[in-house]
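WARN retry 2 of 3 for item q-0093 after timeout on previous attempt; input resubmitted unchanged.
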Amino acid sequence: MGTIAVFTVLAGIVALVIRSMIRSKKNGKSCGGDCGRCGGCGH
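OK item q-0093 returned
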């Protein structure tokens, strides 16, 4: 039972991280504000 609980918590965290990354990409923030890294994103 403990394994299922840990797996559920980890799956939820991974889902939140992926959702955050998708939202950032849609908003044009995929470089994280470091324009040298992403080729000049307009920050």
